[in-house]
Design a protein that fits this description.
By secondary structure, this protein is mostly beta strands. Helices cover about 0% and strands about 35% of the residues. About 15% of the residues have low confidence. InterPro entries: PAAR_motif (IPR008727). This is PAAR domain-containing protein.
């Protein structure tokens, strides 16, 4: 399995190194990708080898929220005692650039929350937002699975789709329909 791609940048994960050699520490263990916890803005790092202070991730991809915080990506800035911008997350292993990568070409920003386990059971849901970053509540959606099956649903009052479980990793073709 490959590291997810978010708007062209690799998703930052627990254990990733930083530009100064510190190690990133994810504080939320329920959001998993590639078998590792996803790193978010606010998560700490180990002590920076250059300035000898612990760091904290302070920037991320604001179009993708992970449990209320922006998702950290390759290049996210880490604050420590070093000059601003010189300490950043390195998430450089191979990334997934397939159809399940999040793209800025869609009419809505889709926040993908996924969890993968060793049981080969895959769970996925989306937080659907419009171009103004407003949740698309009570909107119809559908997506097609690899086998051609169509799943239909309606987002909840917070803009989330239902959780969907699959026995294999899917690359769904997702569509949101704004209900008027």
């Amino acid at each position: 399995m490959l590291r997810p791609n978010i708007f062209g940048k690799s998703m930052a994960l627990n254990g990733d190194k930083t530009s100064t050699g510190a190690t990133c520490i994810a504080t939320l263990n329920t959001a998993i990708a590639d078998g590792k916890a996803m790193l978010r803005v606010g998560d700490p790092t180990t002590q920076c080898p250059k300035c000898k202070q612990a760091g904290q991730v302070i920037t991320g991809e604001n179009r993708v929220m992970n449990h209320g915080k922006a998702q950290a990506v390759h290049g996210s800035i880490v604050r420590c005692g070093c000059p601003h911008g010189t300490h950043f997350v390195i998430a450089d292993d191979p990334v997934n650039t397939g159809s399940d990568a999040i793209s800025s070409n869609s009419s809505s920003a889709l926040n993908k929350n996924s969890s993968f386990s060793t049981r080969k059971s895959y769970h996925i849901r989306y937080l659907c937002k419009n171009d103004n970053n407003e949740a698309l509540c009570h909107s119809s959606y559908y997506f097609y699975l690899n086998n051609g099956e169509r799943i239909v649903g309606k987002t909840n009052g917070d803009g989330y789709t239902d959780w969907h479980e699959f026995s294999e990793q899917e690359k769904p073709n997702f569509h949101i329909i704004k209900d008027y």
